[in-house]
Amino acid sequence: MSRKVLAALGGAVLALSMAACSGEGAGSGGNDSDKPADLTIGVSMPTQTSERWIADGNSVKEKLTAKGYQVDLQYAGDDIPTQSQQIDQMILRGADVLIIAAIDGTALSGQLQAAADAKIPVIAYDRLIRDSPNVDFYVSFDNYKVGVAQATALLVGLGVQNKDGSKGEAKGPFNIELFAGSLDDNNAHFFFKGAMDTLKPFIDEGTLKVKSGQTKIEQVATLRWQQETAQTRMEDLLTSSYNDKTKVDGVLSPYDGISRGIITALQNAGYRDDIPVVTGQDAEIASVKLINDGVQNSTIFKDTRLLAEQAVVAGEAFLQEKTPEANDTETYDNGVKVVPSYLLPVETVYKDDIQKILIDSGYYTAEEVAAGQAKG
Ligand code: GAL
Description:
- By secondary structure, the protein is of the alpha/beta class.
- The protein folds into two domains: 35-135 and 304-344, Response regulator (Rossmann fold, 3-Layer(aba) Sandwich), CATH 3.40.50; 143-302 and 349-371, 3-Layer(aba) Sandwich (Rossmann fold), CATH 3.40.50.2300.
- Helices cover 41% and strands 13% of the residues.
- It has 13 helices and twelve strands.
- Bound molecules: beta-D-galactopyranose (GAL).
- Beta-D-galactopyranose is lined by residues 50, 52, 126-127, 181, 185, 187, 225, 255, 281-282, 302.
């Protein structure tokens, strides 16, 4: 029986909850006789509403296809049951490796157990999958440092700190508000922790004031990282805490989509040249245009091409029954085990950096930045 048939059967056996099949089961990693064309990598991405995940999905697919592998790429529309089903299907169809960017990092234990039973290695892509022993590798960025970089950009934007880390001229006090990402995404906690560790001394000394008093991650989180949810919260904050003619000076935002929601709320409330310093992440093209136009302060660039490359390198290692190279084996405890990780560095992009970091590197063209739209 061919390996692929066994693969499919392996999934069926799983579905029937039978004892582990002996011999070579589904997706048991490649072996020397497997040609790339016989091997399928299942790639599960959270959503197409955010442009970054489209770029990630395309990048991973292109790189794998160029090496001759089959790619089963699925987007789950930010719906947890859809993502679970799509991964079930990938296992049934005989995926040899899974690359997963989870919607809810705690909701995939069942799928990961099925993958483990079928001997399919699982790579968590950018978002750590929690509460499961069956995560074999993690590719991401240094997520704590992302938070530090966001908070630093806020301090630099307010003039409290200079880019070189020295003390800035501005004394404040400045009114700031804080936003965090989705609580079910492990990254949201890392970003917020990095940011708050950086901002806390300035809050403690009174240079920064969180006028709403909302400083706990549970109070400032944004379910599914949604732009509209962030816009509504910013509108509520303006009505509840800034109805006395005081102004917001800065907003810590963990992600460009959230930043755009915040900016829309501020503009609707009449902010123009006095728009607060708003941070971001992902260098989404619509936000890069806003930075170029002087509306958004900054973003944190995570090069999805490099992340995709690392996912492919790790995937290939598993297919060759090797252990992918990790550069961090301490930070990412998923509640059950520390997942070996490969973490990439990040870069802060202010207006002056767009040319060098985003255009010269070929990530975007100058025309795309001017239009605020990527050309697919
Ligand atoms: C996080 C990711 C961020 C951002 C956010 C919203 O998991 O690390 O870069 O993309 O999701 O999509």
